[in-house]
Amino acid sequence: MRSVSGTYRGVQVTPNRGALSAILRVDVDRMRAHSLVLNEVSGDFFRGDDATFLFSWTGHSIEVQSLRHSVTITGDVATTVSNATVQRFEINIYSRAAARGFKAIVRFFRADNSESMYECVRTSKWFREVTLQLDVCRSVRPPRVRLPRGILPKYDTHSVSMRPAHLTQRTLTLESAFADAGVHLLLAPHTMEIDDRPAYFQSWSNAELHLTMELNSRQLRKTTGPWPRWQIWGLMAGRHDDPSNRGLMFDDSTSPDNYKRQGFAIFLDHPELRRSLVRNATDTVDPDAVRMLLRVLVHEVAHTFNLRHPNATTLSWMNSPHVFDSKNTGTSYWKQFMFSFAADELSHLRHGEFPDVAMGGSLAVPAFADSSSFQCLSETMNRPRWTIDLRSQEYFDLLEPVELEVRIKNSSKRSRVTIDALPDPDSGNLKIFIRRPDRRVVEFRPLARCFQRPARKNLLTLAPCTARNKGRDRVSCLIDLTTGTSGCRLFAVPGNYEVFAIFRSSDQLASSALHQFRIGMPLTRTADRLAQDYFNAETSLSLALNVSRANTMQASFRLLESIAAGEYSHLEIGAGVIAKIARRLAKAMARPFHQPVDRARGLKMKVAAAADAAAAMNLIETSLQCYRQIMKTRSRTQNLGFADTALTAISIARKTGDTEYVTSMTEDLVTTLRAHGVNRNVCEAIRHETIRTTLKEDGVTQRKIE
Predict the structure, then answer these.
(1) Left, alpha or beta for 383 (phi > 0: left; psi -120 to 50: alpha)?
(2) What is the pLDDT of residue 703?
(3) CA 321 to chain centre
(4) What is the pLDDT of residue 355?
(5) Nearest one of 697, 706, 547 to 243, comparing CA atoms
């Protein structure tokens, strides 16, 4: 009998004909040559004709009996619904010779021996079907190719010598990688080409990517109903503002459905991906780059199915080669990777609960340490030779952005310690959990997840922990917790908050102690009224995008501008509110903002808001004045914020050629930090780096500040 695996659909026959409908997924025999058989069944119940989702179920203790013209599958029913009465199931699948298909009779048995029966027919050999709209930037499109298929990688599994010895030779594509997982990935025919070649457009910011995603993915939304939509938007772009980014996935949306993880971008100007395509006559294709591009694409698309990064020892599309290699000394990811998902990931893709697998559902396959509480996670910690500490001010005004200092310190007095990157929630090496005043624990999840590989130049060596090395034995960075996928609502309620963090560097993993702070009540009636507009979805999203200047988000921009430009005094809303929002606005206004504009042959990136260095400097001066006022009473907790503001001012001044301001501000920065407890050697390093190098606009500015 041919393979019976796939998706079946049908309606209830007894006891109430047509009252319910069902989707059945059967996974008991091989559907493709390179597919893994999980020997699982699962399904979903709906009220009416797939109109209202009720719940999903999976089968356990499965037994399969195959005959010449039929297959019988029996087992126990498991579901997350507490009041579900169904306990056992029996599936009889028959061959429909005339229709060249299969019919399934499904019976569910309750504890009282009553039963319900469904008649289903196989509608697909796939377990899931999803549409991918892949848009392409003109700067990376190869000549004379047909979009979108012509831009996607085709990888010969034997084209690179570093591979498993028993790997079968074949041509692997994005579509075939998901087909092996039982997912039918369908490319949407209406690919949009975006002209990003003008000289004034150098790289993509998160705000520009998010706006482009919102505008272009609406083409898919016009053709379908409400969530869940089995649809993904992707962009093959050139370069991100952070050149280390290979890929990026958005975890939020301003659309009415407000569902997440529906869009991603791949940056083909990354050094590891640049030679994956032939863009001109002098280019040659590098199979290593083709392999990496395929891996990045599969990785980002899989994230939209709500898969997370697995354990470092897992061989999967979802793991990173450098993470696997660092954990498994003497082995190689590429020498063992069979170009497939792990078994638990396949189980999620094929048999996970309907709302958890659909784009924007619940995250599955926990990362290295997720927890719903602050219980001790010592079993997941391998006690490295460094420690992680959290610091912040003890009290935040209600509207004040919440910033947390994360410090990694060498705990060894004899040897140096190397960490592969600064703690950063965006890259996934830092997990932060927050206990709110209602005692509920939530994980802070940033708006955009970046797919990066730590570069050798980003490796940080910490000196031994001795009095002589004080300052060189640690590294600190400032993490903005104000807005993630939950936006400002994370800290919209006054009260006491507790924060717990876990940091991973290569194969080393450690957790922090609990850190506490308080969010205060509104200072005045003005602050109370302002909170109504401040704690909304648009303003939260704008802050998460480092202040978006998009036309669609002008209301939030004007609100933030009114806060930073002096419409409210620090006595009304707090000096910290003005200082931190003014700094964010200054960074946004120092850079031009681009958005796509319709043209006859597609879209073109045009300047929607020009850079305004003068306005940015005015905002920076406002921020610096507020910080100086705050530091009179809360000195050490403001060092990183003040330094970030001062270095932003220096960066803007460098671009305008004001070297005199650069010199004076550098001395002011060093003098202020020294007066507030920063070690002398750290201050001298800041002076040396600032004077001799051109700072990046939004680069790492808090690397060694104490």
Answers:
(1) left
(2) 40
(3) 18
(4) 83
(5) 697
